[in-house]
Amino acid sequence: MPEPQITEKPDGYFTCPVRRTMSIVGGKWRLLIINSLLDGPLRFNELKRQTGKVSQRLLTAQLRALEEEGLVSRKILNVMPPHVEYALTEKGMGIKTVIDAMYAWGEKELQADHPRDTIQ
After folding, report:
1. Does the pLDDT at position 75 exceed 90?
2. 20 to 30 A from 21, CA-CA: which of 15, 89, 113, 116?
């Protein structure tokens, strides 16, 4: 694979594909958020439960960043009390193959670290 010349434009956009990807999904908790949304839309508190120890403020910031990048959509549900639902966009679903590959790689690493443990 040729090594691309890495340059950053003034707006922070990277010309290296890996750096560009990391600038989008490399924020703290972003891949876990995307992974949680792969199974379908979730409300904020459901997403917070699934992602673990993320603070409400940080989760909100990461969701906004993913929304700005076009990976996540935000929908206000017309119920009482009002709820907000988050879902992956078509662009967001495009990263599924990457997450699947990361899962498979991580699974092998877990098995190598603890060969007798069952992965859940």
Report:
1. yes
2. 113
CB 59 within 8 A of CB 51: yes
Architecture of the domain whose range is 17-113: Orthogonal Bundle (1.10)
- Backbone φ and ψ of 74, nearest 5°: -120, 130
DSSP 14-63: BSSHHHHHHHHH-STTHHHHHHHHTTS-EEHHHHHHHH-S--HHHHHHHH
Average pLDDT over residues 28-49: 95
Q: How big, in percent rounded to 5, are the helix, strand and coil portions of the chain?
A: 50, 15, 35
Residue-wise pLDDT for 12-21, tens only, equals 665 788 888 8
